[in-house]
From TrEMBL:
Signal peptide: none annotated. The lineage of its organism: Bacteria, Bacillati, Actinomycetota, Actinomycetes, Kitasatosporales. It comes from the Bacteria. Residues 42-371 form the AAA+ ATPase domain. Residues 200-222 have a biased composition (Basic and acidic residues). Residues 200-223, 630-659, 724-747 are annotated as: Disordered. Residues 738-747 have a biased composition (Polar residues). This is AAA+ ATPase domain-containing protein. It comes from Streptomyces daqingensis.
Length: 747
């Protein structure tokens, strides 16, 4: 699969792809042509943000498919430190890097073949572009004594850099083996018996005497290994320019003019030491990268307007990517820096604006065309002022309709709106739902909005399962969230975990689930009195998956879970009487809930307050998930329209001797109508909206003190249901104790 095949058709990303990036690169996105372009002395680092599935990687894939081969180019994905790095794939897949050194090495491998040569007539060893960075990366690429696997991987990365810079034509594996044989030290040698050169002698004199502990033995090993690597590198290219440059960076003027590789040795030792010295060495390596790139563009290249390099960095929230971005921004923010590099960096970041970037410029997608209109967009000299944050916005209903237009037949008129209501425009979820719709249509099914959550994808698996695996890839975390998503607060989640026998290394299952959601940017500040999963899309998917999994054996597990949670919330110590009613609805005991609402309705007669609390409870109960149906039939609409007042053979407490209590009948009808209308994926049926209006009108005539509030919601709630907006409590009752002006429960 080539890079062009990897890039999917993207919707709603044109301001980024066709406006911002051509302004930065000087190359058109949609065609192989140049655009009017002036090199920017201080180009911003573009940070593309969004949650899982928002299409961050898809944007970089699209950019890679259009710009690779047209300018110096590198595409890298940062990975966690415990993962092994990989080279770039033949299909255009990015290389990966687990630490800063590996990331810089991959940059050399990607950028070197495309960078212009300032001295094209010189021999290859003198005209390769990374005359400073390459020796520095070789100097810090050491390994522990006897670590054969680490040695082989390190030598392979060095070999790939030498080949990319045009310094060798051998195969990477052959060159790596030759390097390892030439520079490796025997494990028993330990480095102590070897003449370590002037730098080692100076180091020993400063410390008074030679240290015998393991730390100094490791330092001695790394010093000698670095010297051997530098000597071997001399066979491919001159090392003295890098020695001088790094010596000046360290303030070692005398050492910089000497022939010994002391500056390179010092660079490697400081990096492996970590802490402040390690940070200084890492900063020096990034400065070397910018120095070499700027040096590659001489007066001739600048006069010819040669295009500057483009770096695509995926998942820059991982430590290696974050460290590179921070160091790059720090170098560009130096007051004495000459703005002579025009390196273009586009990176992706999970979540929103980084917490440590207070001065970053945040620009929405529609405004990107004007983002670079100013000559100097930087606001101040803080490092984060050089960051342009572009949050990826959700898809709109029109773009989802375009996804569904691939069908060969006419689809239900509300299907695009239903997909949008379920996904909130989340790109990955929207695309997978649309693919499931198209697969079902090709299979001869008649797809309606009500069946959306029950569809199967092209691979035959339930679409909710496939989406959850994409958004929550860890199986153990996904299983835990599916089991606990039905709980309405953290205390209930912990009780449910104990009831279901969930086990794991964590003592508190709910806390572990919350930590996972926070770490992966699904939510930031969980509340103890709110649902465990606060993200609307994730909550809907988890609810649907729980309903599907627990539907076996007539929904016994579903019923058991909700019965347990009803009893949990009835305990005065756990509070949340409204949660008990919500779980009763989910368990299918709607008549019980209607009876409670009718009792509160009667108790409110003669009282001025309480309408807001009653309406809030009514709306909250209507958001409960629908219990699994054995026969697949949904009788809620019939009950809402008074076509049937209750299940056959069980007329309920309001059906005695052919006479029914009018208030209870209206409340029962109203509860079922709102239950249907509260589902995100259902079409707001006109008859159901009319039933809400009529039942509220009926109740307003039966209640002497709530008449104003009930007549108000008789007008506003049907309109809110039509627009899929939250049901709003009248302002007259919003400020009373125990009421809230707006209620938006989980869909």
């Amino acid at each position: 699969m080539c890079m062009a095949d990897r890039a999917r058709l993207l919707y709603g990303r044109d301001p980024l792809l066709r406006s911002l990036m051509p302004q930065l690169t000087g190359l058109a996105y949609g065609e192989r042509a140049r655009v009017r372009w002036e090199p920017r002395p201080d180009p911003p680092v573009v940070l593309i943000t969004g949650q899982h599935g928002m299409g961050r990687t898809a944007v970089l894939d699209a950019l890679a498919s259009r710009y690779a081969g047209r300018l110096p180019f590198a595409y890298i994905r940062a990975v966690p430190p415990d993962q092994r790095p990989t080279a770039a794939g033949r299909d255009g897949a990015p290389s990966t890097a687990a630490n800063l050194v590996q990331l810089l090495q991959e940059l050399v491998c990607g950028l070197a073949p495309g960078l212009p040569s300032r001295y094209p007539l010189r021999r290859p060893s003198a005209r390769h572009p990374f005359r400073v960075l390459l020796p520095g990366l070789v100097a810090v690429s050491t390994w522990e004594a006897g670590a054969v696997a680490e040695r082989d991987e390190t030598c392979l990365r060095i070999a790939r850099m030498l080949i990319a810079c045009g310094l060798s034509s051998e195969e990477p594996g052959d060159l790596a083996r030759a390097l390892a044989e030439a520079v490796d030290l025997p494990p028993e040698q330990g480095g102590d018996e070897v003449d370590l050169g002037a730098e080692a002698g100076r180091h020993e004199r400063e410390n008074g005497s030679k240290q015998k502990d393991s730390g100094n033995r490791e330092d001695a090993h790394r010093r000698q290994l670095t010297q051997r690597l530098a000597e071997k590198l001399e066979e491919f290219c001159p090392v003295s320019p890098a020695q001088i440059w790094y010596g000046k960076q360290h303030g070692e003027v005398a050492a910089a003019s000497a022939d010994s590789p002391a500056p390179l040795v010092r660079l490697g030792l400081r990096l492996h030491q970590g802490g402040d010295p390690g940070h200084a060495s890492a900063r020096t390596l990034v400065a070397a990268l910018l120095h070499d790139i700027a040096a590659a563009y001489g007066p001739l290249q600048r006069a010819n307007r040669e295009r500057w390099p483009l770096i695509l960095l995926d998942d820059a929230h991982h430590p290696s990517g974050k460290r590179f971005i921070d160091l790059l921004l720090g170098e560009r923010a130096k007051p004495d820096r000459q703005p002579d590099d025009h390196l273009i960096v586009a990176a992706t970041h999970l979540g929103g604006v980084p917490d440590d970037a207070p001065d970053a410029v945040r620009c929405e997608l529609p405004l990107l065309a004007e983002a670079l209109s100013e000559t100097a967009p930087r606001r101040g000299r803080s490092p984060s002022a050089g960051l342009l944050v572009v949050p990826l916005t959700p898809l709109g209903p029109g773009e989802i309709l375009s996804l569904l237009d691939r069908a060969d037949t006419t689809l239900h008129h509300y299907l695009a709106s239903a997909v949008y209501a379920v996904t909130d425009g989340h790109p990955a979820a929207s695309e997978m739902f649309c693919d499931a719709v198209l697969a079902a249509v090709r299979g001869g099914q008649d797809v309606v909005p009500e069946s959306l959550l029950r569809l199967r994808g092209p691979d035959g698996r339930p679409v909710t399962t496939a989406i959850l695996e994409r958004l929550v890839p860890e199986p153990r975390q996904r299983h835990r969230l599916v089991q606990l998503c039905l709980a309405r607060d953290r205390t209930a989640a912990e009780a449910l975990a104990g009831h279901l026998g969930l086990r794991g290394p964590e003592q508190l299952q709910a806390n572990a689930a919350e930590d996972y959601l926070e770490t992966h940017q699904w939510q930031r500040y969980p509340t103890s009195d709110g649902p465990l999963v606060a993200h609307p899309l994730l909550q809907r998917l988890l609810m649907a998956e729980a309903r599907r999994i627990m539907s076996d054996k007539g929904g016994e597990l579903w019923q058991d879970v909700h019965d347990f949670l009803v009893q949990h919330h009835r305990d005065p110590g756990n509070g949340g009487v409204e949660h008990a009613q919500w779980h009763s609805m989910a368990a299918g005991r709607t008549q019980t809930v209607a009876g409670v609402l009718e009792e509160l309705f009667e108790l409110g007669k003669g009282q001025r307050g309480g309408a807001g609390e009653w309406l809030t409870l009514l709306a909250y109960c209507a958001t409960a998930p629908v219990p699994p149906c054995d026969d697949g039939e949904d009788a809620r609409t019939g009950t809402a329209l008074r076509e049937q007042a209750g299940p056959p053979g069980n007329p309920g407490p309001y059906d005695e001797a052919g006479s029914r209590d009018e208030a209870l009948l209206s409340i029962n009808s109203l509860l079922h109508a709102l239950w249907c209308l509260s589902e995100a994926h259902t079409e707001p049926d006109r008859d159901l909206r009319a039933a809400v209006r009529e039942e509220f009108g009926c109740l307003s005539r039966l209640h002497p003190t709530w008449r104003t509030e009930l007549r108000h919601v008789a007008r506003t709630w049907p309109a809110a249901a039509e627009k899929k907006r939250p049901f709003t409590v009248p302002p007259a009752t919003a400020d009373k104790p125990g009421t809230s002006q707006s209620f938006r429960g989980p869909a």
